[in-house]
Specification:
Elements lengths: L4 E6 L5 H14 L4 E5 L4 H4 L2 H4 L5 E5 L12 H23 L5 E5 L1 H6 L5 H9 L6 E6 L4 H6 L2 E4 L5
Length: 161
Amino acid sequence: MVSGRVLVYYGEGRGKTTAAYGSGLRLANQGKTVYIIQFLKDRDLVENPFFKRLEPEIKFFRFEKNDKNYDSLTEEEQKEERINMRNGINYAKKVLQTGECSVLVLDEVLGILDNGVISFDELKAVVEVCDADQTVVLTGRTLNEKVRELATEVYDIKSEK
């Protein structure tokens, strides 16, 4: 059972990452330490000088090594990146367990769930270590019903025009 807050931003529209980062920014403004781990994203966001200025309150991590989009990688490159992403998930669990951060954003984690990089049980194991004073934010395009059950709040981001 999850004792902390779990926010989910999902959908086909643009703005899921922006909403997740906005939640992190709002909580950092309240004195919380925010860790953001990106999956299936370009390296540009992690290495952006603007985001570096937000440290130490907000820290960005990307465990993938390849600069190319995951879908365009060879099978061998994807295999290597799956290992790297799993390392990111293990790190996420560790920072929650140790209390290193009070807010953890797992950007595009629902995508790595969809791609079979991690199982629902592995994601659930991360979210379940969240204590009452912590918040976990999950983003991705699709939301499976099991993840919905873990969530405290769910936001379906859609483009209307």
